[in-house]
Amino acid sequence: MAGIDISEDSQTGGRGGRTSLAGNATDKALNLLEAAVAPGYPHRLGEVAAAAGVPKASAHRILQNLVGQSFLAADGTGGYGPGPRLRALAAKVTQGCEEDQVMRAELEVLSRRVGTTVHLGVRTGDAATCLIKVTGPGPVQTSSRVGMHLPLHATSIGKCVLAGLSEDELTALVERVGLPTRTEHTLTDLDALRAELATVREQGFALDEEENEIGVRCLGAPVRDSRGVIVGGVSISTITFVESRETLLGWTELVRTTAQALHGLLG
Hints:
- By secondary structure, the protein is an alpha+beta fold.
- It has ten helices and nine strands.
- The protein has helices at residues 25-36, 45-52, 56-68, 84-94, 98-114, 156-163, 167-177, 190-203, 245-249, 252-261, and strands spanning 43-44, 72-74, 79-82, 117-124, 127-134, 149-150, 206-209, 216-224, 230-239.
- The strands form two sheets. A six-stranded antiparallel beta sheet has the order 6-5-4-9-8-7, sandwiched between helices. It has a three-stranded antiparallel beta sheet with strand order 1-3-2.
- α1 (25-36) packs across α2 (45-52), α2 packs across α3 and α5 runs antiparallel to α10.
- It is globular.
């Protein structure tokens, strides 16, 4: 049985670095629900509790309630995964949703124009999550997948999100999750990250220069909700030995235009 891949999350051992002392009962239940249905389920109690930042005793009680309500399912050997009620809820949200259809259509147009893989990611707590992936035609592909958690400081989508935070919000987030090394190119110094985010705000786009995955360079632009708050981003992903940095930068207006077309569709 696969474990929860916390390397793709904020690497704090908990959602947003929270412990049982932070967050109310609703926070804990939602964090446990998210941890239990992370890719690779079923997950055992200890894994789910650690990923959610909730003590085992409390986690066990809440998980049993979620099983009882059919939001989660227990596999009989101590593992948890999505239950029928959660699957039905997911279907209601995604099937026939006009916003989802519009967003996917916009990303498909972008992918065809640039000939490579594009993503839509949204902020989920102290990380981002890949919501839509449209795979390019090339034989070499990135390791990304829908549902994958992306570190905010090491991805172009994540940097777009961070660029929309106030200084106090950025500092608090870094205090919670740190700036863990993903590759030798990851920005792990807060002052360097601040300088990078200032550039993102000025230019209206962000770059991931092999900071999350060696051999992958990404260009991202922010996506805003109906209030104008940055809630995620659209990115173009390239393989460094297939497409040059200059080629990627040549698609800046395309990715920004696509991101603007999604304005207000995420809330």
